[in-house]
Amino acid sequence: MSTSGPNSQSPIRLFPPGFLWGAATASYQIEGATTEDGRGPSIWDTFSRQPGAVWNGDTGDVACDHYHRMEEDLDLLGELGVTAYRFSVAWPRIQPTGKGPANQRGLDFYHRLVDGLRARRIEPTLTLYHWDLPQALEDEGGWCVRDTAERFAEYVDIVARALGSDVERWITLNEPWCSSWLGYGAGQHAPGVRDIGKAAAANHHLLLAHGMAVPILRSAVPGAKVGITLNLGDERPGSEHELDVAAAERADGNLNRLFLEPVFHGRYPEDMLAHYAKADPGFSVVREGDLALISQPLDFLGVNYYFPSTVVDESRATEARLAGYFVAPIEMFPDLHVRSLETPGRDKTAMDWEIQASGLTSLLVRIRDEYTTLPIYITENGAAFDDYVDPNGRVLDANRVAYLQEHISAVHDALDAGVNVQGYFVWSLLDNFEWSFGYSRRFGIVWVDFPTGTRLTKQSYHWYRDTIRANSVEYATSIGSS
Ligand code: IFM
Hints:
Layout: E1 12-14, E2 20-24, H1 27-30, H2 43-47, H3 66-80, E3 84-88, H4 91-94, H5 104-119, E4 123-129, H6 135-138, H7 146-163, E5 169-174, H8 176-185, H9 196-220, E6 225-231, E7 235-237, H10 242-265, H11 270-275, H12 290-294, E8 300-304, E9 309-313, H13 317-322, E10 326-327, E11 338-342, H14 358-370, E12 376-380, H15 398-416, E13 421-427, E14 446-449, E15 454-457, H16 459-470, E16 472-474
Parallel strand pairs: 2-3, 2-13, 3-4, 4-5, 5-6, 6-8, 7-9, 8-12, 12-13
Antiparallel strand pairs: 1-16, 9-11, 10-11, 14-15
Helix pairs in contact: 3-5, 7-9, 8-9, 14-15, 15-16
The structure holds 5-hydroxymethyl-3,4-dihydroxypiperidine.
5-hydroxymethyl-3,4-dihydroxypiperidine is lined by residues 26, 29, 175, 304, 380, 427, 434, 443.
């Protein structure tokens, strides 16, 4: 079977046989049942109760009630036809205080999930940490202290021994940038700390936890495929001015290189170490041998991509406004002296994220050229839109269909360019708890009526099912993709 190239006559782009089609979720965002069967509190249970931390005071207490509706959700996956499902294990279900013996009832829940997937011939892809740190560990310093990485290694050992016979593909961490820089730097995520020195220390301890987990997984699960999922972006300067080019370099350093370089090259980028030289404790927490642990060989890289960024030096924000840009009101890089721009006229999602699928292709090509030729899975990609149930009882989310079509086409462009992409997971199967945005942002291809928990498949669910069946996409490009 051959794949059609970008200039071929046919708009239909076939994917290679065996290309993995998946859907992704995360424990705190969908499970609910936060006090059931021995689960301990996580940092998100605490943070979501802080006044003003989460939109509308929403919490994950009930979420999609997946804990009780697992069979229904498994059926949705089965009917969708995915070949893989990416979910995360909630650490506080397994070790309620982050240490000590395993809570069997917590493990049983994931046993049932994995069995249900296997029965439907869906490959489980298990993420060990998707942000729900046991609160008891946060009380002892959280990711700012080295001990949390040691505790993580013990937790990984428990999960690997319990589920290893049924799970082949393991992801150590989801988006450690968010855990460290949003959680401890910007304070937008749990635990809501605003301290750059702590964020940098968390960055390192998260990567250390990843490094410690790899050999544990390899020894507990023979044949395990082990990787890490990073949220990466295409950071572009708003102009050719040297200050803006340097600003984009800093944004790239923080978001991309602080993770890619240690994992694939065994070092932190010099410019970032210099930038955070005065941060306390910052990267002074790095010990001899840590980077060797962090850069152990992996089996794949998980890439989460949502939007590209255009940035300028903060001193040039006025110039950028005069040049026609909007300057984003909330800065995602609070310590970098950059300002993020929004390009007028470019389509955006309900998150205010610009839509530009070509950023995914260029990111994938860059990863191949500069970091690794390992298999890559797009472990998350998707969009929030202001969906609604129409009078005929349908959710016609044509904008999400277009987004997915453009981004899956962009993945195909990367394949054409020789990048070793082996799978794509849509974010998300279900509308869910979107962190500090609570339930106000819907990313699902399945609508969830939160008061009742009722599920309703959206137009995008049916479109994705057809795409999976055909193992192809009708080629589409997004605005600004040339
Ligand atoms: O919902 C999140 C997910 O938990 C991590 N990646 C980004 C998604 C959308 O914001």
